[in-house]
Amino acid sequence: MGVMSTMAAPTIAPGATPTVTPTALACPRCATVAVAGEPFCAHCGARVPFARPGRAPAAPSATRALVWALLLVAVNAIVGGGALAALWLVGDAAQLSQAGLALELVRLVVVGGLALVTVRLGLRGLRETADGRLARRGWAILALVISSSIALLTAVSVLATALLALR
Ligand SMILES: [Zn+2]
């Protein structure tokens, strides 16, 4: 890449934390390190969105991922509690396994759908925070851990209920 090698401008190292050097942020177009507090790149004139002192701005997808993960935890608890209450109301043992299976399928759709959205947001959050210019990578990781755990538990629960019902 001849174009890349001619760029003598200093670039930010991958994984560098903007909180340590808050003003040394690279231009998104040409990767020149922006001047402190300058909204435009001195080299190419492109707008430098994060060339200001202070904390690195939060990655939007990482933030959304954790919000969805907490929503997922709440919905999972509500659906699980509702399922228990419904099974308690179904006194007939013969209907119990079928009712359980129906409830598990509802749970699979609702909780599984939410978990899918959360995982996608979490992965996007990981990509957004990969170069260290955006904060809250931990939020994206936490959202991925929460959503994949709940998805796994839901899958196991649905499978177990299905095996019991179809036995
Ligand atoms: Zn530039």
> What's the shape?
rod-shaped
Ligands: zinc ion
Low-confidence stretches: 1-9, 16-23
Find the structural class using helix and strand composition.
mainly alpha
Rg value: 24 Å
Count of helical regions: 4
Largest beta-sheet characterization: none
- Our count of domains comes out at 2
Give an overview of the whole structure.
It is rod-shaped and about 75 Å long. The protein has two domains: 1-55, no CATH class; 60-166. Helices cover 60% and strands 0% of the residues. The longest helix is centred in the middle third of the chain and has 36 residues, at 93-128. With 167 residues, it is mainly α. It has four helices and no strands. The termini are far apart. The chain binds zinc ion. The site of zinc ion has 8 residues, from loops.
Secondary structure: elements and pairs:
Blueprint: H1 2-5, H2 60-89, H3 93-128, H4 137-166
The protein binds zinc ion.
In short:
It is rod-shaped and about 75 Å long. It has helices at 2-5, 60-89, 93-128, 137-166.
